[in-house]
């Protein structure tokens, strides 16, 4: 090793000269990182470096200079460009000039094994280090360093591979001035390179043109800003300049400023927020001026505004349906998850620590293609991202297309950020285009979405063809426990191809049971740090969408050799337990095995056997007879295991999953089916949980500092507000002090609400929403007391059971095998440094957490996309179809369904339709401020069967209404007395599902109120409080009538009912009855009395139960106990007017 000094002098601001000495330690063993290395052994094996390797196939390697790396990074990110050598010279300069975003982008290219790109440490290599000469510019010194590196590669590889230097500043003659022996070294600008090597790849040429236009625009703006610097405050048209970094860091340290990730509220784009410290809480940033050019996801520094400027976060539903599309994310991002009117601190952005600019899917603003000029505004598909100004020579080509754009800069005097066009992905609202847009938005790579694996990865795959089928090797079989004589079976959804897990269970005498969970042995086929392994690590997980999936592994593994198909030998990793009669574990064995599955069962088939059927569809009688005892024994055993875990605090949570049924001919969706819970789902889930828990304990014994575990922290207490409020409305109390207390509370609510399944589901769903996100951790990153999984009530947990579709499971398999090969449980074999390195394992865990989260969000977006397509099918008018969809007079058909009011807001409420798993807004207050409800909502029946609407009452809006909101509790609507209809009660609303169509954004679903749903409602004493109409008359009033819309499952509090009963003992018999039912019963009795000659009778009720709206308010008497009941219930207000309060309670 040679020490070298680089000495240079620099003049300071005080006109003093400072000598600076930079020591560099030079080495002669820096590896070339090329598979063409002629040395034996190759230099990358002598000095271990965790990196991909340059491949041997291409005829050239690329070496970009600073001008290309800085300004054309998007081109270098394109997957067509491979075998790129990024020099240490360029990366160090990017870091020194604070180009962190560009630096990170290039590092991501290197991390992607498919790109076969490397970082060469030329500054530390004795043969490539270059000193800066006196009076030499940095640019020229760096160029000499790149030429020296190119010449070294030519010599080192014996001239077998050419080197192309990519530069926008230097030319071929600039190499001649440095090195006369430049054979095999070519200098090209990007246009020349693409023309020669990628002449037919239009995407790359279009991107280059777009980047050049963006660079030209940026240069012009920089020149113009040299003479005019806009420093206008919030009242002007410009933004504030950011404060210097030193001032920002000092301000954050002194708590004068606050730093955090800025999140824009999806439901209200004018509001953003960051999470301050524990004292200040959430800081709201109102308006684009105070946001000061920050974009969603940026790490910003915020200065608090004066208290007089503090505001309450918006609590109304946005009138822009594209914003409502992501409204649910607001609660997830907000610190409390609950909408309140509490005033919160406000602030303004005074600096940005790091940008989160990403590729954005966007659409050209309508009409831009008709305008002259080359500058155009595009609207990102995600409405929380501002419009972006791009430059394109032919806007007509981009019209009605989904395109990918990137932000380049946001000048202080520009209303919108400047960006550039990257590529087009297809026509807007085309299914494949929208799927591609979802994948791009969630960072899922192009190669994964096209099912493409690198050539090197495919070469590592075993051969399995009809001509040469794969067979298990005898030498490998001898190393494994042979379980082929056991009855092994898998239970999965229909048509499952990637079968990760199988089960075996049998009685072995003395009341003991042998129970085994067998998992595909992917680690046998995918060796650590192989190309396939690196590619699987980059992908992180298989991505499942509504109509397709994108695999983590090549199909020869995921669907064939690793998948535990029946009637073939398969390698497995097994956990085998010996259990006693009460399912207590006596012994546990871990190891590699070989199995032969007897059957690939579907959930419905297994449930049929469990229900006592001797034969189920799809399985022959002999096989059913063989499998039924095992399925029954498995169920009995897992029930005991599950009961024991639940007793320790395991939670039974709820989610609204749906699946889509597609038409076989002509495409389209034939139906949306809610997931039907079966007991066999819980049984298989419990078996997998048991295996994961035991494996977690075992790998922790061998890898105390780097075990890959699954961590689920306790929820934040404030996230339970909605759950507590909903439970209180039924007289229940929820204890959230621990998972055991929460589980017991939920079970108590369920046991006392046996006839109210929807309410129980609602509580479980709200509990699920309150949960913190589970994540992967490296065991060394936190104390052992923090490992626990809150939701499952386990001290140790990991993911072991799905290595075909999750990379974390593959890591766990390797750690488990290393433990098993060790001499003692606390020791491992000579496992790789990667498995033992806690820091590296923590980095992998962070990467997998990101990939897992984005995969789930992509799945959620896919579900919403297909729900939208289904509503589009149902509402499309045949007349419009016949006219090519362009008939302006063909209105959409009504599509009505029953829904549950799930959330109250100031101007309406959200309705959840369980049938389709769709949530959408219902507006009671128009954007103009006018409050109105449809006439159909005031009648006995709001709709007809079969999704239609009876009559046109739903189109007649009752105007002149007033509304008062008690957020999260109720909305009181005062309806003019002439509009009142009959009196009824129902737990659900009838809504019409409608579609807001948009070119720039995805179509979004919203709803309009139709009326009440009376089907299936009962008059039992314990029926839940639902939607109803009450009538009452005050002592000094002509009368009142009210309508009540509630969240599912709402009921009077027990203490309130007791208080009412103490005031009027005659009401005691109805303590357990629904309030609205009681009101109706009281009305009915009064009406019967009036028919017999009671006072104040204006007109008898017509046949059929219909009440004339104009006469409704004469039907109740102030002396009745019913009036006292309403008066005593403090959530309902009786207003002395001719108007009628109607309440929408939550």
Notable characteristics:
single chain, 1146 residues, alpha+beta, seven-stranded mixed sheet, six-stranded mixed sheet, 33 helices, 44 strands, 22% strand, disordered C terminus, magnesium, nucleus, exosome, enzyme binding
What does this structure look like?
The termini are far apart. It is built from 33 helices and 44 strands. The protein is globular, with a radius of gyration of 34 Å. The chain is 31% helix and 22% strand. The chain has a seven-stranded mixed β-sheet.
Percentage of residues in helical conformation:
25-40%
- Largest β-sheet summary: 7 strands, mixed
As residue ranges, the low-confidence spans are 227-237, 331-338, 941-947, 981-987, 1016-1057, 1066-1083, 1093-1146
Give me the number of helical elements. Answer: 33
Beta strands, count: 44
**Spatial strand order of the main sheet:** 19-26-25-22-21-20-27
Average pLDDT works out at 79
Note the overall shape: globular
- Structural category is alpha+beta
How widely separated are the two ends?
74 Å
In percent, how much strand structure appears in the residues?
15-25%
Q: Any idea what the radius of gyration is?
A: 34 Å
Pfam families: OB_Dis3, RNB, Rrp44_CSD1, Rrp44_S1
Keywords: Cytoplasm, Exonuclease, Exosome, Hydrolase, Magnesium, Nuclease, Nucleus, RNA-binding, rRNA processing
Subcellular location: Cytoplasm; Nucleus
EC number: 3.1.13.1
């Amino acid at each position: 090793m040679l020490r070298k000094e680089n000495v240079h002098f620099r003049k300071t601001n005080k006109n003093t000269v400072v000598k600076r000495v930079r020591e560099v330690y030079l080495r002669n063993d820096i590896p070339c990182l090329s598979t063409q290395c002629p040395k034996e052994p190759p230099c990358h094996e002598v000095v271990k470096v965790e990196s991909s390797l340059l491949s041997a196939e291409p005829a050239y390697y690329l070496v970009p200079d600073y001008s290309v790396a800085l300004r054309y990074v998007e081109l270098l990110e394109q997957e067509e460009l491979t075998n790129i050598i990024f020099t240490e010279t360029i990366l160090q300069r990017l870091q020194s000039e604070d180009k962190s975003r560009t630096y990170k982008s290039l590092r991501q290219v290197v991390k992607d094994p498919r790109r076969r790109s490397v970082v060469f440490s030329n500054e530390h290599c004795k043969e490539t280090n270059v000193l800066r000469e006196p009076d030499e510019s940095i640019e020229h010194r760096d160029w000499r360093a790149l030429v020296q590196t190119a010449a070294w590669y030519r010599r080192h590889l014996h001239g077998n591979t050419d080197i192309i230097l990519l530069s926008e500043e230097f030319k071929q003659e600039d190499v001649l001035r440095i090195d006369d022996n430049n054979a095999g070294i070519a200098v090209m600008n990007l246009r020349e390179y693409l023309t020669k090597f990628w002449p037919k790849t239009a995407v790359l040429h279009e991107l280059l043109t777009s980047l050049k236009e963006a660079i030209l625009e940026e240069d012009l703006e920089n020149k113009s800003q040299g003479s005019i610097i806009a420093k206008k405050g919030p009242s002007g048209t410009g933004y504030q300049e950011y404060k210097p970094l030193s001032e920002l860091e000092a301000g954050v340290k002194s708590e004068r400023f606050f730093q955090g990730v800025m999140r824009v509220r999806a439901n209200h784009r004018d509001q953003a927020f960051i999470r301050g410290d524990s004292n200040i809480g959430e800081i709201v940033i109102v308006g684009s001026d105070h946001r000061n050019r920050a974009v969603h996801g940026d790490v910003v520094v915020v200065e608090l505004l004066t208290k007089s400027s503090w505001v309450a976060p918006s609590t109304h539903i946005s009138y822009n349906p594209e914003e409502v599309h992501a409204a649910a994310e607001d609660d997830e991002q907000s610190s409390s998850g609950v909408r309140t009117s509490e005033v919160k601190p406000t602030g303004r952005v005074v600096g940005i620590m790091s940008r989160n600019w990403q590729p954005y899917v966007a659409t050209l603003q309508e009409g831009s293609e008709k305008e002259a000029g080359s500058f155009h505004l595009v609207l990102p598909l995600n409405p929380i991202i501002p419009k972006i100004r791009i430059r394109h020579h032919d806007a007509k080509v981009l019209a009605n297309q989904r395109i990918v754009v990137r932000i380049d800069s946001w000048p202080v005097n520009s209303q919108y950020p400047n960006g550039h066009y990257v590529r087009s992905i297809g026509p807007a609202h085309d299914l494949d285009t929208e799927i591609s847009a979802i994948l791009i938005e969630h960072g899922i790579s192009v190669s994964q979405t096209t099912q493409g694996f690198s050539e090197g990865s495919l070469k590592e795959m075993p051969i399995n063809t009809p001509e040469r089928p794969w067979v298990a090797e005898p030498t490998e079989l001898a190393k494994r426990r042979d379980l082929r004589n056991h009855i092994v079976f898998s239970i999965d959804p229909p048509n499952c191809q990637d079968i990760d897990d199988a089960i075996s269970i049998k009685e072995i005498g003395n009341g003991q049971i042998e129970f085994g969970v067998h998992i595909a042995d992917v680690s046998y086929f995918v060796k650590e740090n192989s190309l396939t392994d690196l590619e699987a690590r980059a992908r992180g997980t298989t991505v499942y969408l509504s109509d397709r999936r994108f695999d983590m592994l090549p199909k020869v593994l995921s669907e064939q050799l690793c998948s535990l198909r029946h009637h073939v030998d398969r390698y497995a990793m097994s956990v085998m337990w010996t259990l006693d009669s009460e399912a207590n574990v006596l012994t546990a064995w871990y190891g590699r095995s070989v199995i032969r599955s007897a059957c690939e069962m579907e959930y419905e088939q297994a449930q049929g056997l469990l229900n006592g059927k001797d034969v189920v569809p799809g399985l022959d009688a002999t096989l059913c007879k063989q499998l039924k005892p095992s399925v029954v024994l498995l169920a009995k055993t897992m029930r005991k295991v599950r009961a024991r875990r639940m007793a320790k605090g395991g939670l039974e949570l709820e989610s609204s999953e749906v699946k889509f049924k597609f038409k076989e001919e002509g495409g389209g969706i034939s139906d949306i089916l809610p997931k039907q819970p079966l007991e066999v789902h819980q049984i298989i889930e419990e078996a997998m949980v048991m295996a994961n828990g035991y494996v977690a304990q075992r790998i922790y014994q061998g890898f105390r500092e780097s075990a890959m575990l699954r961590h689920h922290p306790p929820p934040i207490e404030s996230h339970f507000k909605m759950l507590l409020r909903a439970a209180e409305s039924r007289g229940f109390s929820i204890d959230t002090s621990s998972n055991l207390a929460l589980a017991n509370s939920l079970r108590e609510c369920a046991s006392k609400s046996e006839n109210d399944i929807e309410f129980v589901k609602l509580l479980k769903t709200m509990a699920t929403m309150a949960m913190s996100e589970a994540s992967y951790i490296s065991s060394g990153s936190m104390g052992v007391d923090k490992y626990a999984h809150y939701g499952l009530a386990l001290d140790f947990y990991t993911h072991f059971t799905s290595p075909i579709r999750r990379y974390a499971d593959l890591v766990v398999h390797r750690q488990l095998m290393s433990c098993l090969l060790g001499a003692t449980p606390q020791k491992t074999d000579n496992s790789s440094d990667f498995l033992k390195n806690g820091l590296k394992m923590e980095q992998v865990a962070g990467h997998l957490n990101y990939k897992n989260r984005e995969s789930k969000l992509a799945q959620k977006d896919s579900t919403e996309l297909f729900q939208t397509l289904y509503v589009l099918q149902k509402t499309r008018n045949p007349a419009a179809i016949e006219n090519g969809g362009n008939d302006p007079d063909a209105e959409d058909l009504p599509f009505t369904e029953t829904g549950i009011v799930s959330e109250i807001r100031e101007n309406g409420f959200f309705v959840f339709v369980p049938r389709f798993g769709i949530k959408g807004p219902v507006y009671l207050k128009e954007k103009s401020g006018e409050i109105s409800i449809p006439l159909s909502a005031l009648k006995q029946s709001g709709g007809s069967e079969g999704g239609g609407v009876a009559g046109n009452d739903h189109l007649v809006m009752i105007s002149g209404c007033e509304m008062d909101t008690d957020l999260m509790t109720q909305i009181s609507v005062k309806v003019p007395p002439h509009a009142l209809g009959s009196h009824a009660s129902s737990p659900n609303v009838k809504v019409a599902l409608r579609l807001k169509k948009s070119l720039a954004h995805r179509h979004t679903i919203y709803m309009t109120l139709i009326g009440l749903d009376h089907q299936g409602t009962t008059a039992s004493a314990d029926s839940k409080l639902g939607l109803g109409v009450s009538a009452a008359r005050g002592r000094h009033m002509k009368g009142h009538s009210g309508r009540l819309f509630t969240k599912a499952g709402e009921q009077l509090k027990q203490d309130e009912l007791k208080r009412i009963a103490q005031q009027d003992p005659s009401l005691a018999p109805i303590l357990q009855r629904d309030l609205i039912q009681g009101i109706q019963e009281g009305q009915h009795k009064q009406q019967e009395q009036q028919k017999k000659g009671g006072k104040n009778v204006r007109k008898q009720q017509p046949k059929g139960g219909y009440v004339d709206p104009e006469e409704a308010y004469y039907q109740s008497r102030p002396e009745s106990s019913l009036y006292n009941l309403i008066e005593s219930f403090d959530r309902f207000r009786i207003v002395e007017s001719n108007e009628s309060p109607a309440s929408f309670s939550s």
